[in-house]
Write a structure and sequence with these properties.
heterodimer; A: mainly alpha; ABC transporter involved in vitamin B12 uptake, BtuC; two-stranded antiparallel ribbon; 12 helices; B: alpha/beta; 6-stranded mixed β-sheet
């Protein structure tokens, strides 16, 4: 029965990785921009929530709703005035600029908050659990997974049911023709990054509640996010959730065998999927 | 009353004059055909009308307003629609979504407000059966129809068609001509650049001939095609 429990924990952990990955996937899908600062932006979101919690004395679950519009605005401005300038036929400038942004963010956080690891304040809720048959599931992991599913459902609705979503897809398809139709790609891209930052904020909440964080953990979150996106197949959000689950399960199973194997097992699972299905489990044709 | 009027419009790229003192009027509701050899400046003329490029000299009036200095975006909103020589649909969006995007952004309206109009356009252009097909899966005729539909979805007063019949088989061409005639019958003014002459002359009421950027003939299609100057320049035939 310990194995069922381990796998259940892994699936729920996958929800967190899917949250890390959804914003990355959204930005890449719409403007082919690989944001290497994505992990650091998640960590920055966690610090923002921490500051709001400390200053206002409110619960992290409340603080996240104040942080979301702030992060949206930040994402919008970042895309509109910095990242849009790097987009073009050459894929190198966006990589260099976001890599630089990653380093700058890490150092800014280090300067502002020191290297001490922090944690968002926990309450009774964060340690509560429910018994489902033979296994015990934590309320927090369940909330995380539920949020990931909710985010993916919401993004799919946005993409396929709304005017903004169609503008996203039209711009993703052919930015030049979209601009002939009266769409302004620069603003569409800015809005997309803004929405990605809202998802980053949600991811930051669960990151900060689940474990300690410090200014240097961003790049590792970026790698989990990348792996989830690639396992799922670029452009498929449900695939991204499955990718997150595969990494999550591999990590918990690896940890159950030997605690040292946790991270390694996740990466091995990623490599195995890449060997068997180089384009991921749900490549874009199905999207 | 003329909906479009060009007065002494000129455009040069460096030493090359691509539009040379062009003046003509298009009456409301008329279909005007434009012919001319390759490089005569036909597409440039369209670009001047849509505002993609600016005239060096002369004035352009549309619908009673001087639009010489108005941006392409604003001209689209005031009712100048255009189809492109090479169809450029959003391949992953469905036919219906392609129209929705064009209509909402081209008319600056909400999606809800333009839905019925888009369906109406698709019925007129006989694409309604393909409404939910991704545009990337369409045949060439269907792509041309989509290009026409997309221009129509912006509800233009003036519709510019750029070699829309090129590359179609005879049967497909006839089908497309039928659709264009329907559109024209509903009162949309049309300017149509085309090399497929029989397609053009079966629709348009007037024909304009361009050569080296100059308007060298304008009038009844039969008379224009019969004129020796046009035959020599355009068709290269010694009569």
């Amino acid at each position: 029965m310990i194995w069922v429990d381990t796998i259940a924990q892994g699936i729920l952990l996958g929800g967190l990785y899917a949250l890390f990955a959804s914003g990355l996937s959204l930005v890449f899908g719409i403007m082919r921009l690989v944001n290497l600062a994505h992990g650091d932006l998640i960590v920055m979101g966690a610090y923002l929530i921490l500051v709001l919690v400390t200053l206002l004395g409110i619960s992290p679950f409340l603080a996240v709703f104040i942080a979301m519009p702030l992060m949206f605005a930040l994402g919008w401005l970042l895309q509109r005035y910095l990242l849009n300038r790097t987009l073009g036929d050459d894929i190198l400038p966006p990589l260099l600029v976001t890599f630089g942004l990653s380093i700058a963010l890490q150092n800014a956080l280090l300067e502002g908050f020191s290297a001490d690891s922090q944690r968002l304040p926990t309450s009774a809720l964060t340690t509560a659990s429910v018994n489902v048959g033979p296994i015990t599931l934590g309320i927090m992991p369940l909330l995380t997974f539920g949020s990931a599913v909710l985010v993916i459902v919401a993004l799919n609705q946005l993409f396929y049911r709304t005017e903004l979503g169609r503008a996203f897809r039209a711009t993703s398809d052919d930015a030049t023709t979209a601009s002939l139709m009266g769409i302004k790609p620069a603003n569409i891209f800015a809005t997309a990054t803004g929405i990605a930052m809202v998802i980053v904020t949600i991811a930051a909440l669960y990151l900060g509640l689940r474990a300690n964080f410090d200014p240097n953990i961003g790049p590792a979150r970026l790698i989990y996010a990348f792996e989830a996106v690639i396992i799922g197949g670029l452009g498929s959000l449900w695939g991204t959730l499955l990718g997150g689950i595969i990494i999550g399960v591999a990590q918990t199973v690896g940890a159950a065998i030997n605690p040292e194997w946790q991270i390694l097992a996740g990466h091995i699972a990623f490599l195995v999927v890449l060997l068997v299905r180089p384009r991921g489990l749900f490549p874009r044709a199905h999207d | 009353m003329s909906i479009l009027s060009l007065k002494s419009v000129s455009k040069s790229f460096g030493a090359l004059t691509v539009t040379d003192d062009a003046s003509f009027d298009v009456p409301q509701g008329q279909a005007l055909g434009i012919i001319g050899p390759n490089g005569a400046g036909k597409s440039t003329l369209f670009n001047l009308i849509t505002g993609n490029i600016r005239a060096d000299q002369g004035r352009i009036h549309f619908d009673g307003r001087d639009i010489t200095k108005v941006s392409a975006m604003e001209r689209c909103l005031t009712g100048i629609g255009r189809s492109f020589q090479i169809p450029q649909p959003f391949e992953k969006l469905t036919v219906y979504e392609n129209l929705l995007v064009a209509a909402t952004h081209g008319r600056n309206m909400s999606e809800r407000a333009v839905r019925d109009d888009c369906i109406d356009v698709l019925e007129r252009t006989e694409l309604i059966g393909r409404a939910n097909t991704p545009a990337g899966q369409l045949s060439l005729l269907e792509r041309k129809r989509l290009e026409l539909s997309r221009a129509m979805a912006t509800q233009p007063k003036l519709l510019l068609l750029d070699e829309i019949a090129g590359g179609l088989t005879e049967g497909e061409c006839q089908a497309l001509i039928g659709t264009i005639k329907d559109v024209h019958a509903q009162g949309v003014t049309i300017i149509w650049i085309e090399h497929v002459l029989h397609a053009l002359t079966s629709v348009v009421e007037r024909l304009l001939v361009l050569d080296f950027g100059k308007v060298i003939g304008l009038g009844d299609p039969q008379q224009i095609m019969a004129s020796q100057e046009v035959r020599e320049i355009y068709l290269g035939i010694d009569v």
